[in-house]
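Late entry, evening session. Most of the bench is empty. Finally got around to the prediction I had been postponing all week. Sequence below, unchanged from the version circulated by S.P.
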Amino acid sequence: MRSICFSPRTPSFSVSRQSMSPSRASLSITPRRRFSESMIEQAIDAAAIIIMKWDAETSAYARVTSLFYESKREAMQFIRSVNELQKIMHLLVPEDSGSEKIIQAQNLMQIAMKRLQKEFYQILSMNRAHLDPESVSTRSSRTSARSSTSARSSTSDYDGEDDEIRTAEDSISEVEEISSMAMSDLKLIADCMIASGYAKECIHIYKLIRKSIIDEGIYKLGIEKISSSQVNKMDWDVLDLKIKNWLEAVKISLRMLFTGEKILCDKVFASSDSIRESCFTEISKEGATLLFGFPELVAKTKKSPPEKMFRVLDMYTAISENWQEIETIFSFESTSGIRLQALNSLIRLSESVQSLLKDFESTIQKDSSKAMIPGGGLHPLTIYLMNYLTILADYSGILTDIISDWPPPAKSSLPESYFDSPDSDESPLPAISVRISWLIFVLLCKLDGKAKHYKGVSLSYLFLANNLQHVISRVRTSNLQYLLGEEWIAKHEAKVRQFAANYERLAWGHVFASLPENPTASMTQGETKEYFRKFNSSFEDAYRKQSSCVAPDSKLRDEIKVSLGRKLVAVYREFYDTHKSTVGDERSVRLFVRFSPEDIGNYLSDLFFGTVSSQSSSTSSSTSSHHRRHMWSQLRA
């Protein structure tokens, strides 16, 4: 590549000689067939006129004026003259490399190249805004959009909206025209300098200016050189902010910064694949390496707050979803290091995710808190794990790739139902589904151990029912439902019902037993009074003990209340209606019949909120019932 781009100045024609066509080679052997001595002199003299006019060392006008901005026609004439001069030099060198004419032509060529270097630099510098990567990368898309709009306008009536669109299009077109002209001028100069053996000078100027633009763009996006030790010393909030900046930076960099620069390189140096590759690589390599190296530093950091998992997954997603763009933009062999850095970051991020998942499981398993949750409510561990898994499920596609080769949990420690569906031979669960099932199973095992700390067994079952219901609720309202499936949900809903039934039997069984098996069977006044007395005592005792219980999930709360009402209120109503009149006089009724069926229903409706009214009576049942329904609706909301 150096032999092409960086050939020595004298002789400065090795590039052109190597690339000459057969016809041109024949001209060098018999130059007089096409050029007479007088024609050569005329061509050199003509070239000298325009070249010397723009010699900044001899002309004050040339020092302060741009050839390409002053007169595009004269600029084209300048380029043609230089090209003709180059042809003449190729003809003269084989005959007499030390002749007066060749020396004059060489001097003119050096002046011309110096001028073109100045023009190349000026165009690059003065058009930084119009040649910024964003403008270059969006030109084609804007052109397509404008064509689409023009087609639409041609088939519709002009109105105010069309006028606004045309005004915006005119403004965009003006910017794009300047950008296009600058790119064409740069290509013209680059082609001329490369053909004349001055590729090295042209490339040096291009790299100098364009690299500064890329480096500035990367810096403005918040990407800077940083060491692993610096990352480890950062507070998580600071590092989290840098990760957020990086997530935005990688999108802008790929879609605009590097894409735009590659388009510009391809346009300006279209005549040489090797130069195009060399320029783009040197301009983009440092910035791209910094960009794709940052995730690897984050993955290696020792900080492991819960949020790190999701930031790492965000970064993994950003690289993996843009991998095709990365391979397209950095497709050259000389940019393979950039692709390798991006791939290394993917690998490190993947390893970090696996490590964080193991740490998360370990945290759940090591939880040893023995504090009992009042009223059998939700344990913080349940809330924490389900919040975590709910967010994790949003990354199921990425996680499937990351943990696809993970071995499943040991079957000795995990029920068979957690591994496969009934037709497991045909459709085994994905690795991510097995892993999430396992994490929930670990939680349920921990909850089972914590439930044993309650003194009342009935409260233990309510605790298990509440927490499992919360798990199911979060599964149903998130992407977890697609990972675990309806069969998993149905099985665990059955377990909730079983826990609730056990709670109901242990907490309210003695109340059910206080009523006769046949509530309408005939009995003596004494037997009736004894049944009412036993019911009053058992109900008050059960209500007092259960008044502090909670059921945060409205669905579970309603199901328990409906079940209690169906078994208790209905039976008590039959007994009440049949035997109230047999208790005796009004004084005996007040003494033994302390609750009406409506009172029992009202008391039950107050349960499972954690706080209940201490006064519920038949005299205020309508008002209190309305108040409770209002409060209940607010709590549900």
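Two things to note before I forget:
The radius of gyration is 42 Å.
The mean pLDDT is 81.
Will write this up properly tomorrow.
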